[in-house]
């Protein structure tokens, strides 16, 4: 079973990915983990990625694609299948992934797309507040401080402010839509309603995967 999971920041993609891996035993492949492993193992692509990172440069697509290909060619993938998380991030990377899978004799069985209304994501992501004295993190809506708290005792990080969150979501939507469209044309996208309790979302995902098996 070879899967890709997609969703906007705050949609619960990480939580659901962990549950899928635990329940179905597929290999979780996230971009960060792949880079760290490739650099630690000093693979050809890992060394190349490190040379860019050490200079503070962005790692070019061809190196990222190479690291993905290295990881997907390992024996555990054919034995257990994979769940790709955080890649592809652009339509060019999606085309590169198509070529990689074809070269390795693998195919993508499904793209799990966790759909959440962007307006509610702004509320989810911009509600985080931090206690100025203790550093404790709370959420204005989902996990507020106890009792009647004084807002002056709390602050928000710049990247948690609503306007910053909205900009980040807009960028993700613009980047992600062509990828979703690409896989939708292939008939392998399954939309999952992410505006539900975590367990309900996973139950919906579970049913979908069982059908794909």
TrEMBL record:
What are the record keywords, sorted?
ATP-binding, Cytoplasm, Kinase, Nucleotide biosynthesis, Nucleotide-binding, Transferase
Q: Can the keyword ATP-binding be found in this entry's annotation?
A: yes
Q: Can you cite a GO biological process for this protein?
A: AMP salvage
Its UniProt pathway annotation is:
Purine metabolism; AMP biosynthesis via salvage pathway; AMP from ADP: step 1/1
| Residue numbers binding AMP | 31, 36, 57-59, 86-89, 93, 157, 168
Q: Where in the cell is it found?
A: Cytoplasm
* CDD domains per UniProt: ADK
* Chain positions recorded as ATP binding sites: 10-15, 128, 137-138, 196
Q: What is this protein called?
A: Adenylate kinase
- Species this chain originates from: Streptococcus bovimastitidis
- From which lineage does this chain's organism come? Bacteria, Bacillati, Bacillota, Bacilli, Lactobacillales
The gene name on file is: adk
């Amino acid at each position: 079973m070879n899967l890709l999971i997609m969703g906007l920041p705050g949609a619960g993609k990480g939580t659901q990915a962990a549950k899928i891996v635990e329940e179905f035993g597929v290999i979780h492949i996230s971009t960060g983990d792949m880079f760290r492993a490739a650099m630690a193992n000093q693979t050809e692509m890992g060394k190349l990625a490190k040379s860019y990172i050490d200079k503070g440069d962005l790692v070019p697509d061809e190196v990222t694609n190479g690291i993905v290909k290295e990881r997907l060619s390992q024996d555990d993938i054919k034995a257990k299948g994979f769940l790709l998380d955080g890649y592809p991030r652009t339509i060019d990377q999606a085309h590169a992934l198509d070529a990689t899978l074809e070269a390795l004799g693998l195919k993508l069985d499904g793209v799990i797309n966790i759909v959440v209304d962007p307006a509610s994501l702004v509320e989810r992501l911009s509600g985080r507040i931090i206690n100025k004295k203790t550093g404790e993190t709370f959420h204005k809506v989902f996990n507020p401080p106890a009792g009647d708290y004084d807002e002056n005792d709390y602050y928000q990080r710049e990247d948690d402010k609503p306007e910053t969150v909205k900009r980040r979501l807009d960028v993700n939507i613009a980047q992600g839509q062509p990828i979703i469209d690409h896989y939708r044309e292939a008939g392998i996208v399954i939309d999952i309603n992410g505006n539900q309790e975590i367990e309900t979302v996973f139950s919906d995902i579970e049913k979908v995967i069982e059908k794909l098996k």
